[in-house]
Structure to design on (373 residues):
C-alpha cells in the first residue's frame, strides 16, 4: 500500500500533528508499506514571518503543498490529509482525484466551524464557500478519523458522514526521569501552546483570588502561542505576583517539568467544543498529578475522559471562584503521589500500548479504504 500524508508540519518538527503522523508513518513502513509525507516545511514553534495576511500565508502554504503532492512518487493508493493549514482537505481531495487514489482524513480541527467559533472569519461568502468545499471533500472520503465523540457527532449532524475515533497518544521518546519531586514552590501549571481556542482568562482570575487569600500558590504558563501576549498583558493588569511565563520545555525536560507541579492544567473555550481535542491532554492524563480542565462540563472531554479519575476537576469557563476554591483545597490537602523508576516504566508501557493500538487501527482502516485485506 502506498500512502501519501499531507499536513502543514511533518517530522522531525515538534508539532503534535507532525509527531502523530510520524508515528503512523513509521508503523506503516515497518510493515512493508510505502509512505511519503508532504508538508509546508515550516516550524510549529516559529512565529509567522512579518508582513502579509494570515490568509495569504495559508494560501501560499496550500499552493506549495499542492505542487509537491501532485509530483510525489510512487503513485499513492490513498491520500491522507490532516487539518492544517485550513483548506488542506479539499486540496487533498483534488490531489486524490488527479492521482486516482482514495481519500482519508485525520481531523484534528474542524474547519471552517472552528474559525467561525473563534472569530477568525466572519459569516459570509468566504465561510459559505469553505463549508461547501469541506462538504464536497467529506463526501469523497473513504475514511474519516476524529479525536473524540463530540467531533464524530458534529460531523454526523452537520455533514451526514460517519467517522472512526482514535485517541491521540503521547510521544514515545519522551525522557522519563528516574526520580521526580515537586518544586519547593506550590505550582499549578499550564504547558503547551496557548492559542485562541484556550481559556486563559479564567486561570488568571482564579490566581488573583488565590493571591487575595494570601496563599503561596504560583501559576506557571509554559510555552508560547498566538494569545500569550494578550494573556501576559492581562496578568500585568491584575498585578499578579506569583505568575511566571516560560518557554516551551524541551522533549528531554518536558515530563520532569510537568512533575514539578502539584496540579496540571488544560483548557478549551466553550465555542471550540466538538471542533478540536487539546493534544496536550494525551500526556497530562498519563501523569500522577490531578488534572484541572477549564472547559465545557458536559462535553466528551469532561464526561468521557476526565471523569475516569476522581482526582481530576472540570470547571466551566468564567468560574474563577470555583476553580480557586478547588486549588485551595489541593493546596491544603496531601501531596501528589510519588514518582520513581517503576512509575516511569508503567507510563512508558501505557504509552506504547496506546501508540500500538492507534497505529494498528490506522493500518487496518487504510487497508479497508483501499480494498486490501
Amino acid at each position: 500500500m502506498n500512502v501519501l500524508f499531507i499536513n502543514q508540519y511533518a517530522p522531525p518538527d515538534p508539532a503534535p500533528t507532525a509527531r502523530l503522523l510520524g508515528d503512523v508513518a513509521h508503523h506503516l513502513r515497518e510493515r512493508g508499506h510505502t509512505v511519503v509525507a508532504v508538508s509546508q516545511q515550516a516550524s510549529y514553534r516559529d512565529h509567522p514571518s512579518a508582513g502579509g495576511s494570515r490568509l495569504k500565508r495559508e494560501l501560499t502554504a496550500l499552493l506549495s503543498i499542492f505542487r509537491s503532492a501532485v509530483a510525489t512518487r510512487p503513485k499513492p493508493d490513498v491520500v491522507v490529509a490532516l487539518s492544517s493549514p485550513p483548506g488542506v482537505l479539499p486540496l487533498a481531495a483534488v490531489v486524490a482525484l488527479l492521482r486516482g487514489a482514495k481519500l482519508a482524513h485525520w481531523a484534528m480541527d474542524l474547519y471552517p466551524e472552528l474559525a467561525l467559533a473563534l472569530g477568525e472569519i466572519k459569516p459570509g461568502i468566504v465561510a459559505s464557500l469553505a463549508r461547501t468545499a469541506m462538504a464536497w471533500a467529506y463526501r469523497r472520503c473513504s475514511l474519516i478519523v476524529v479525536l473524540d465523540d463530540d467531533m464524530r457527532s458534529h460531523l454526523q449532524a452537520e455533514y451526514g458522514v460517519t467517522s472512526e475515533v482514535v485517541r491521540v497518544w503521547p510521544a514515545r521518546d519522551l525522557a522519563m526521569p528516574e526520580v521526580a519531586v515537586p518544586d519547593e514552590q506550590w505550582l499549578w501549571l499550564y504547558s503547551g501552546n496557548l492559542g485562541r481556542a484556550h481559556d486563559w482568562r479564567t486561570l488568571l482570575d482564579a490566581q488573583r483570588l488565590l493571591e487575595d487569600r494570601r496563599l503561596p500558590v504560583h501559576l506557571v504558563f509554559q510555552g508560547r502561542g498566538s494569545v500569550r501576549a494578550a494573556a501576559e498583558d492581562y496578568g500585568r493588569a491584575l498585578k499578579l505576583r506569583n505568575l511566571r511565563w516560560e518557554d516551551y520545555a524541551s522533549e528531554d525536560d518536558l515530563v520532569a517539568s510537568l512533575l514539578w507541579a502539584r496540579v496540571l492544567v488544560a483548557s478549551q473555550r466553550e465555542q471550540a467544543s466538538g471542533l478540536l481535542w487539546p493534544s496536550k491532554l494525551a500526556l497530562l492524563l498519563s501523569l500522577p498529578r490531578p488534572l484541572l480542565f477549564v472547559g465545557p462540563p458536559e462535553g466528551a472531554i469532561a464526561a468521557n475522559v476526565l471523569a475516569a479519575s476522581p482526582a481530576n476537576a472540570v470547571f466551566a469557563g468564567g468560574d474563577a471562584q470555583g476553580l480557586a476554591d478547588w486549588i485551595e483545597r489541593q493546596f491544603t490537602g496531601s501531596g501528589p503521589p510519588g514518582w520513581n523508576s517503576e512509575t516511569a516504566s508503567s507510563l512508558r508501557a501505557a504509552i506504547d500500548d496506546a501508540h500500538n493500538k492507534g497505529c494498528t487501527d490506522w493500518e487496518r482502516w487504510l487497508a479497508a479504504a483501499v480494498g486490501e485485506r
Observations:
- The chain has a mean pLDDT of 92.
- The two ends are 11 Å apart (CA to CA).
- The CA atoms of residues 264 and 284 lie 7 Å apart.
- The chain has 13 helices and twelve strands.
